[in-house]
Amino acid sequence: MKLMIDNLQGLGALDYTAWIDATVAARIERTLNEPGRLCFSLAADESGFVLPLSEARVTLAKENGELLFTGYLNESPAREYLGWGEKGPVYRYDLVAESDEVLLDQKALPNRAPFVARSAGSALRQLAVDLLPGGFDTSAVEDVDILTSYRVNTQKKFSAHAGEIAVAARASYRAMNDALVFTPVGKATYDIRESDAAFSPSRLKLTRPGCAVNDVTVIGLEEPQAYVRDYFVGDGLSLRFYLSQTPFQQSRGAFINEKYQDATLDPATWVVSDPQSAVSVAAQTLEVNGGTGQSGETSVSFVEQIEMGGAIKLQHGDVNFSSASRGVIGGLYAGGVSASCLAGFQITPNGSKSNIQAVVNGSVTGPVVTTTAGHRYVFTTYLYSMEVYRSGETYHSAVHPAGDGLGGATKPADVRIVLEVQEINPADPHTLVAPATVLYDDVMTNIADYCTYALVNAASMYCSIAYTYAAHISLAEIRTALPNSPYVTQLVGSLSDGGECRIASSTTLDFYPQYVPPLNTLIVASYRGSGRAVAEVVNPESIASISNEIDDGVRGIVRVMESPSARTEEDCENAALAILDHAADEAWGGSYETWSDFLPGQATDIFPGDAVSVDVPSQAAAFTAIVRKVNIEVVDPANDRGLYNIEFANDSAQPLSYQDSASGTGISLQDAAARLTNDQVGNYYLPSLTSAQVTQVTSTTVLVDLGISPANGCGVEVRPHDFGWGAANDRNLVGRFNTRTFNLARLARTQTYFLRLYDASSPARYSRYAAALHVDYPL
User: How does 728-739 read in b/e, with b if 16+ C-beta sit within 10 Å?
Assistant: First the structure.
């Protein structure tokens, strides 16, 4: 073998093979989805010996050039005096090198938006490019599977993120020779067979850890639960109204906060298509001067897709038009940037000026605002959806590998879109706080799950943009209506940002004094309640196979899902299924030691993430497992021979595709979920009544419209509390109905009704989440 070290001082790589200390075998340590290490010692006197420096480049290769390790010294060598040799004192130098990704680990990741609906391989490639553009060959990075959402933590190293991404996709990564490799686990399989002539039975150690598990409870994050609508009436004086539940809280951090302070657009935020060099950054503004004349060819787009769920504010900037323009500002597209804009601001020429109008589903609609020279325009889009997450997380196992995971289903949703523009006259300070002009305010049904956001789609645009901001906002849609007038959306936020009201605490809605609701104003607050995501799933067949006269056969565990996270109850169910995929199977683990000449399956090398197929009848062992660690003792470097110790385990012994932990989280009785069998997951619950609403209130009755007509054999159950559901319990029952509309008795000023669908099954199935209708009207 050859040991080459380059101190990166212009002398190139030097051959240190002759100085390897033969009394201390070099050791290569490889661990699944972690950086590799090379530990070795050099023995030399000072004459002719160049002491390796910290961060020197190290390669260990066979005589034929096949690489075993490439990396960098992570610290200065430790020195030990061995005695006096022919040429003077002799020292041993102990060195440790880490594999190539140490170059990436030494750099801080940029603060970027979460990856959304990206492949795992694409996310890994992007992180490498963000840290060291062109530094690594990523051609061997496969896409593997789709990540629903992955948030980059700038406090973590690249290797930590690479490991998490690999776990989420059931993949393995490694860095070697300035290249990243990312593949599904088990892509290469090697046989360990008792019948092979080179098999060494004394070097094989097998274990059978753990016991069967057939009842799994998974605890996830706080999730959106009940579909709540609170109804109030203004008295002309009151500014504060009390919500019936605590609204679900989304992350409030901005995912775009661009001030255009650099000389070029940040590639971690923007993707630019600019064949005619019409886009530039100057004087802390984004300048757009021209275009090809065709929609979609000159554009500035957000690097990630936007999940069309929850509540989002997109402020496309303070825009100054220098000439008549054509194009779209702040466009959302169900796919690539094109002429078919889902929602945005259409800009068209009007003599030397421009017209601004809402564009929805590719067609202009609503009022027209004509630009004035010297004026600035602030464009804002608000999105409100009762569905916070449009796609579930995906969980893997050996039964459900990459590309065939559990979960990941998309959820249809309606989204209210509000498009407004504020015109600012620099000569009139009052225009800074004047109400914006609403160009569009309506619900788009069954909207796309994810959209491309293009700040600018310039056919021929001449403008400057001072800033762009996007963030999740309070998940509460507030609508008001004067008597005999249509409802309008009231913006929730700070007064300085144009908000008319705010969620002042967890359960209060406060209007600002200048926006006090007039007498008899109808107010509707729509939001999602919150609670802990929990699911319990059992395998009845496994329970029955173990049960006996004194044991019911239940083997249960409670786990907190860490990666992939469990954002909803559905995610918890799918995570439980992934655990149950192997929980009842035989657990196998072990290690096999062999010389490099006799590696299983005639392999020349083995890496963590490869699979081994073990067939040893004398130990009743026939299973396939994934290699978790590989240690190589280089005991005979002169003859390219090393002693491999290969550690492996199957998923029953050591879960591979998720990270969980023992629960330290208490589960309240209210959070406890139904106990489902593995066959019931995905088809147990009926749809939730997401469109249920109150349409009329009198002093004695409340008229409810479900938004759908119950199917034959189905009905809706109404209760004053969100518990006690079931045909056997009539104690807190308001009523059962099988029509779309019905009247409920109103007995007090403030009253709440919880509604769930049920069917004719025995026992009856119900909606997963309740619809909560809360009325606070004077009697």
Answer: eeeeeeeeebee
How far lies 21's CA from each of 24, 94, 635, 715, 756, in Å?
A: 6, 9, 11, 81, 74
Domain ranges of the chain: 2-99, 103-184, 189-211+586-649, 215-220+537-584+658-677, 250-474, 693-776
- Answer for the pair 507, 243: CB distance below 8 angstroms, yes or no: yes
Q: What does DSSP say about strands 215-233 and 556-563: parallel, antiparallel, or unpaired?
A: parallel
In 482-521, beta strands by DSSP E? 488-490, 501-505, 508-511
Spatial distance between the Cα atoms of 252 and 337, rounded to a whole number of angstroms:
27
Residue 384: helix, strand or coil by DSSP? Answer: strand
The average confidence (pLDDT) of the chain is 91
CATH class of the region 189-211+586-649: mainly beta
Which residues, 6 or more positions from 18, have their beta carbon under 8 angstroms from its beta carbon?
A: none
Question: 716-733, pLDDT tens digit by residue?
Answer: 999 999 988 998 888 889
pLDDT of residue 463: 95
Query: Rounded to an integer, what distance in angstroms lies between the CA atom of residue 575 and that of residue 537?
Result: 10
Sign of the four-CA dihedral 395, 400, 404, 407? negative
Query: pLDDT tens for residues 266-324?
Result: 888 999 999 999 999 998 999 999 999 898 899 999 999 999 999 999 999 899 999 99
CA separation, residue 753 to residues 208, 224, 529 (Å): 54, 18, 14
Q: Give Cα 287 distance to the centre of its chain.
A: 33
Residue located via tokens 């059992």: 538
Helices (H) and strands (E) in the chain, counts: 5, 54
Contact 479, 524 (CB under 8 A): yes
CATH of domain 250-474: 2.60.120.200
Three-state helix/strand/coil letters over 520-580: CCEEEEEEEEEEEEEEEEECHHHHHHHCCCCCCCCCEEEEEEEECCCCCHHHHHHHHHHHH
Domain 103-184 has CATH 3.55.50.10: yes
* Cβ atoms of 87 and 95 closer than 8 Å: no
Cα 6–chain centre separation = 40
CA 365/CA 358 separation, integer angstroms: 6
Write the CATH number of the domain with boundaries 2-99. 2.30.300.10
- CB-CB neighbours of 700 under 10 Å: 10
Total Cβ atoms within 10 A of residue 128: 23
Give which of 69, 92, 82, 460 is closest to 298, Cα–Cα. Answer: 460
| Residue 116, phi then psi, degrees to nearest 5 | -125, 125
Q: Are 21 and 43 in contact (CB under 8 A)?
A: yes
At position 66, the amino acid (one-letter code) is: E
Q: Is 775:751 a contact under the CB 8 Å cutoff?
A: yes
459-478 confidence digits (pLDDT tens): 999 999 999 999 998 888 99
Q: What share of the chain is helix, strand, coil (3-state, %, to 5)?
A: 10, 45, 45
CA 620 to each of CA 301, 590, 750: distance values in angstroms, whole numbers, following the listed order: 59, 14, 69
Q: What does the DSSP 8-state code read for residue 484?
A: T
As given in the structure block, the two tokens for residue 330 are 């702040």
| Residue in 355, 346, 300, 349 with CA at minimum distance from that of residue 327 | 346
Contact 170, 185 (CB under 8 A): yes
Considering the domain 693-776 in this protein, what is its CATH number? 2.60.40
